[in-house]
Write a structure and sequence with these properties.
Elements (H helix, E strand, L loop, with lengths): L1 E3 L14 E3 L1 E4 L11 H15 L8 H10 L6 H9 L5 H15 L8 H12 L12 H36 L9 H10 L3 E11 L3 H8 L10 E7 L7 H12 L6 E5 L2 H10 L2 E5 L5 H10 L3 E3 L5 H4 L2 E3 L1
Parallel strand pairs: 3-4, 3-6, 4-5, 6-7, 7-8
Antiparallel strand pairs: 1-2, 1-9
Helix pairs in contact: 1-3, 1-4, 1-6, 2-6, 4-5, 4-6, 9-10, 10-11
Length: 319
Amino acid sequence: MLLFSPVESEIVVKPFEPRRIVCAFHDIDGTHSLIRDWPPVMSIVLDYAEKSGVPAGYDSDENVRRIAAITGTKPLPVTDAFCVESAGLSALTQMEWALRRAVEAGTVNVPCDRAENREKIERIRGGEEVFPDLPDSPELEAFLTEHTPRLFRFYEKVLNLYCRDRNLALAKQDPDRFIIPGSPAFMRFLFAHGVKNYFVTGAVVEKGMGMYEEVETLGYPIGPGKVVEDIIGSTWTDKLPKDVIMQRLAKTLGVDGAQILVVGDGRSEIWAGAQMGAVMISRLPESAAYQRALHKSLGTNVIVADYTDPRLMAMFTEV
């Protein structure tokens, strides 16, 4: 078993008591994998949905090709910023945010309480994903039920065409090109010392496809008793916030939050880890000043640029 203890170092941004680590919950995109260059794709799809609404054929193959061709060609200040702020949220929540903005802008005409819709837009931007206290009008609920997963599938098609399929093919030849430095060794280190690693993602997880295929391509063995015990993610239609996924997983494993290490680059997994009483490592490049400040405010304990930092490994001792 591993003991994780703070050291006198600038990478420790919030001191904590030494912890015996039983399990580690890891985000994937940006935390361990670089296959999906998702922010520019997400940004332009959300911008398109807000400004164009849901016209007939908006998710056609022709429109997929059109949007992919212009992805990343110009700044989109509002949606670019939202992608930074919402990293780690369920993709369905991110789609919902854009569709609610389309309703607010009048691009889509759906009867609803506009003040409540505006409140939900702001709450999503603040990291919330479910709103049991503010039910939608039947018309808005039906609209979101139909178009949120449809827009999600459209986004995935654009992502595949823009970068994912090409990068996956390249990763099969040279996986190290798409791995955060030190990630495989860090995962194997945890595994070798009895820590069970779980990948937790807002992406859809289907065995042999999508995110599952990407993880396997990068060389992470998946399955009981392997380096990665399992991958838990979302579905095309059911929103599963990471805090829900992580809390359910901890309960199923019978593990207390204080025995869990959370590793991520998004706000949702770090916030969820803080709520569970876990200890958290944020994997963020030194250039990500806004995200580093955000993670500090969320309560992360350690921030590193990658897993080769000797100060990080010095925090682990075998007990």
